[in-house]
Amino acid sequence: MMAVPKYDELFDPTLEALRDLGGSGTNEEIEEAVVKILGLSDGDASQIHSGSVTELGYRLAWSRNYLKRYGLLENSARSVWSLTKKGQETQHVDPKEVNRIVKALDKKDRTIPSITEDNIPEGDLSLAWEQQLLEQLKSVSPAGFERLCQRLLRETGFVEVKVTGKPDDGGIDGIGTIRLNLISFKVIFQCKRYKGSISPAQIRDFKGTMVGRAERGLYITTGSFTPSAKQEANRDGSPPIDLVDGDRLVGLMKDLGLGVSITTKEEVSVDMDWFEPYLS
């Protein structure tokens, strides 16, 4: 039996996580907090649902959705979730009551699908373009993905970005320089087209290649990172590594307009007052 709790068993852990985070948090922060609250192992926390979305992350998305419709959570356009006044005053919820209320609302609003206790639909709460873009990234060649990451880094302000992905590269894929006002420092990067989760051992191996070569590291993957890998990336006494998983990668590409086309709907209304001088 899968160790990841059902979406409605995550209601209370989600509320507790947000309280621990000071009342608000991103999807990633909430997921990491819930892992600690439930004491999930790396293996349980890293089970993949689809793409780079973990099973836990997927079920938490439904949990947040239900808690929002129940009136305990709200979220901003930047995907930051926060407790409402009612949520701040709520320590525990009855899953059956939440399901009853939300499913009653569903009868009035069919735009949000219901979930039964024993069945989670195959669809995902994330937008279709995100999954499509992630699958496209996984289909490019290894060398092509390195060049794509090189372009991404240049677009975000890196200079002197070189791809070194060769058999004798010492385990790195490239190096670049990031300039911040009057200072600059070198960054070694690793690019992995990956369907699973990056382990702490892979992060440690990458850190070994950085010694004496760069101040920071950057690990970019189409997959995800285990909780232990995230901890290893910022362990005291070793070079820090910034992590970019599949979800963050597609978000960056959208923000930079790389590989996507964004259209907006034009709305035209008639200014009746403008015609006033011509009515007589």
CATH class of the largest domain: Alpha Beta
Q: How many β-strands, per DSSP? A: 12
Give the overall silhouette.
globular
User: What portion of residues belong to β-strands?
Assistant: 15-25%
Task: Determine the number of helices (DSSP H or I, runs of at least 4 residues).
Answer: 11
Which series of helices and strands comes N to C?
A: HEHHEEHEEHHHHEEEEHEEHEH
User: What structural class results from the helix and strand content?
Assistant: alpha/beta
If strands are numbered along the chain, what order do they take across the biggest sheet? Answer: 6-7-8-10-12
Radius of gyration: 23 Å
Number of domains: 2
Can you give the helix content as a percent range? 40-55%
Weakly predicted, low-confidence segments: 116-126
What is the CATH fold-level name of the largest domain? Trna Endonuclease, Chain: A, domain 1
Rounded mean pLDDT score: 84
Q: What characterizes the major β-sheet?
A: 5 strands, mixed
Distance between the termini: 79 Å
Q: What is the name of the CATH architecture of the largest domain? A: 3-Layer(aba) Sandwich
